[in-house]
Every structure is written in structure tokens, then in C-alpha cells.
Amino acid sequence: MSDYINLHVHSNFSDGVFSPEEIINISKSKSIKYLSLTDHDTVNGYNSISINNIKDIKFIKGIEISTKNHDNLHILGYNIDIKNKSFLLNIKDYRERRIRRVKEIIKRLNDINISISFDELDFGLLTTIGRPHISDLLVKKGYGKTRTEVFHKYLVEGCYAYVKPQGPDIDEAIKTIKNAGGVCVLAHPSTIEGSFNLEDIIKKGFDGIEVFYPTHTNSKIRKYLEIARKYDLIVTAGTDYHGPGTDREKIDLYEYDFEKYFNIERLFQ
């Protein structure tokens, strides 16, 4: 049986369905040997993981930081020191910015007679909140059938209730990760390619690029591999797994191949 890799996974400490421990158990049952938990703007999920449960897999600490430059310009940080005080203060600030954004979105939804409140949102004290939590509440209250449906109906750019992302800019996010000893990887590059020159973004200080991602076509993959070779980048793979009912439900999509994921040994030394 082949070994699999997934370095882009979300738990219920952000907008995923399962707990970190459940994700690890699912991953092991699917022969995933290379894994990272990359919740949005938080590393709180790592405190709930048993060391004994990850001893049979190559597990690296990660995070996904959302920037204000674009809704999809996200930076995956790996091998970060999750106890670095400056890092923790910064991502706490990013989470607080998210709360302000969510409250403004809810205010705008109320303006168009959609009756929801911040207090109705289902999230824990240590959870990073975001638009998916609003989507889930809208589904619960009958404004749509799925998270994806209501997300695109009410919360994306062009909708009345849309509010621009409030996170750090690219440079600040990269600095936050690197000051904590981390490695910066550009997440799902195809989602921003129409808005930015990818090579200009890479030159800002990225160490890697998420070449293998569910929406990437073969031609896109070839293009990103060429960029990775040109700039000596780490090549990673991730499914952006969130769990059932999220439209991001596949966790075991990419077989591990050392030659395909060149430079990846930098992450697993």
C-alpha cells in the first residue's frame, strides 16, 4: 500500500469538522504518513494532540495565515515554534481582526433582513472564527442547504454583506512565520493567479509552493513545478481538508513520491 501526504488540513480549531486527534486517526487509517495540521491563524489545536498518537507518522507543526491582500492569498507556515511569544501575540491579533470582520458581516446581513447574531455562531473559545461559521449558521436557520451555497450567495466579493479580509499583509505574515523559525509556503496558487504575478509574490520570501492541490489542472501543476525549480522551492501537496459537508472532504488524494516533492526533505529533517 502506498504512503500518502497531506500538508494542508483543518480541524475544528478553525473551520474544519473534526478534532485534531480525530484527524490524526483518520489520516492513519488512510495511510497518510506525512501530515500537518494547518488551522487558520491558530496553533491551539496542537495542545490537544497526544505525542503517542503521532509517533508512527511524519508530523510537522503548521498554520495557515490569511492575508489582507486577497481572500485567497494564504501562507502556510511549517516547522514553527508554537511557543514563540511574538508569534503567539501576532496570531492572536489576527484572530481578533477576524472577529471584527465577522461582526461587520453580520451587521450587513442584518441590514438585508437576515436575522442572525454573533452570539448564535457555533465556535469554541480557542477557535479561529471566519465566514464558514456564518455559512453554517445561515444553513441552520434555513437560508440555504449547504455551506458552499450560502457562502457564495451572501459572503463573497460582490455581495452586499462582503467585507474585505482584515489580516496582515504578505510581508508581515512572512515575517511572523520566519521569526518563529518557520518555513513559508504559498497556498493554492491557482486561486490568486488572476490577481497577482506569482513570481513577484514568490520573491517576497517564500520557501515553497503548494503545487499539488485539488483544483490544480495538469498544466497548472507543470507551471508551478517550473517555478519551484527556478526558485529552488519546496514542493508540497495538500487537499485543504475540512471534513464532511464542507465540499473539501478528501484527505488521501496524493501519494508520496520523494522525487515528485523535491526539496521536501527540508521539512522533514
Question: Would you kindly provide a written description of the structure presented here, covering whatever features stand out?
Answer:
By secondary structure, the protein is α/β, with parallel strands linked by helices. The protein has two domains: 4-87 and 170-266, TIM Barrel (Alpha-Beta Barrel), CATH 3.20.20; 90-155, DNA polymerase, domain 1, CATH 1.10.150.650. The protein has helices at residues 20-29, 85-111, 131-140, 147-155, 170-178, 198-202, 218-230, and strands at residues 4-9, 32-37, 58-66, 74-78, 183-186, 208-212, 234-237, 254-255. The chain has an eight-stranded mixed sheet. 42% of the residues are buried.
